[in-house]
Amino acid sequence: MFKFDPFSPEVDANPFPFYQVLRDEHPLFWSEEANMWVLSRYEDIVTALNDWETYSSAQGNLMTELPNRAGATLGTTDPPRHDRLRALIQKAVTKRALDHVMEPARQAAKAHLQAVADKDQFDFVSEFSARYTLDLIVYLFALPAEDQEIVRQKAVLMVQSDPETRTKGPEHLAAYEWMVDYTDKLVAKRKQNPGEDLLSGFITSEIDGEKLLDREIQLTVTTLIMAGIESLSGYMTMLMKNITDHPEARDALVADPSKIPAAIEESLRFNTSAQRFRRCVQKEVTLHGQTMKPGDFVCLAYGSGNRDERQFPNPDVYDVSRNPKGHLGFGGGVHACLGTAIARLACKVAVEEVLTQFPNIGAVDQDLRWMPSSTFRSPLSLLVSTR
Ligand code: HEM
After folding, report:
1. Is residue 3 part of a domain?
2. Least buried of 93, 108, 286, 361, by fewest C-beta within 10 Å?
3. Cβ of residue 277 lying under 6 Å from some atom of ligand 1
4. Residue 181, in any domain of the structure
5. Does the C-beta of 298 come closer than 6 Å to ligand 1?
6. Using a 6 Å cutoff on CB, does residue 338 contact ligand 1?
7. How far is Cα 12 from Cα 7, in angstroms, rounded to an integer?
């Protein structure tokens, strides 16, 4: 009998054959192991994303949710509360705030690559993507230098879950509590001494006399640190995996760097880190002959929708000139990723710098170990060759 367990090592190793069976034979599937429905076809996922009244985020959007997050921040609220929060936050994420961080981030990327320039191989995760994305978050929020390493460690732990119990273990919960406490103190300090950073932008952001509450700022910063460090670093690693697994794509990007933005979009479609998020059904929905009841959770398998042949011709081919409009790499609907501009820019700078320094960068045979998470899929390390 067919099983789909988003926590299983088989799914971690290669989810795509599972997705194929889901789309073709069980387009609405009840996963006993995950205790939720799974939607896997592109069209069904898009329908769900555009109907937040039926498919609510207010009970949490992570496959294994953190305590006190549901109903409290962007990814875990429905309109109208969500829209008000999003507008206030969006107002602070200006082009100026991004321009401010990209030049120092590029210099940091160069320095990390310079540090491994003499090596034949290096670990793309620990020696590049984890460091560079941390730099970015540090610049965005003006985090004090002495806090950086501990913030990174806690952010990485927060997004993980215990694969045995399928819940957050004590170490994950403790990391989350640490982060909530840390951001609480940071907000208080920054209120006394505001600057040009994004956190200061959240404090001053105002629409029609309304401002973000301290608790909202604190949870938003916690979420953004998590998204910035883990989603971005995980995705950047998957992007580099896609490029190094396809040397012809790498050569095309080296020959013509103007193709890099299209390669970033194709990687978000082809093999991305943010594989699945969840929603909670609010009214009875009958689909493909089965009925979901109010209160049921449903997994939106973005990674599967992105490989749906009903939407993308030859979906299993990584084609950097494809320009896959409407891919689900950043989700969609009211909850579409808020960090798209930062993410795209950060990845563009990273790929430009990596390919300038290492035009022959290549994959090294390795038994990849994946981060224990049912939402995100990214390797804990990725060895690459430099020549
Ligand atoms: C390439 C890296 C990234 C990927 C692949 C990614 C992917 C996603 C996806 C798929 C969602 C939708 C979640 C859902 O459907 O429930 C999302 C939401 C979100 N992302 Fe990202 N993300 C990335 C980077 C970032 C960054 C750098 C930030 C901010 C610093 C960010 C902030 C957010 C926020 C705040 C939301 C919730 C938006 C809302 O609910 O209105 N993301 N992201």
Report:
1. no
2. 286
3. yes
4. yes
5. no
6. yes
7. 7
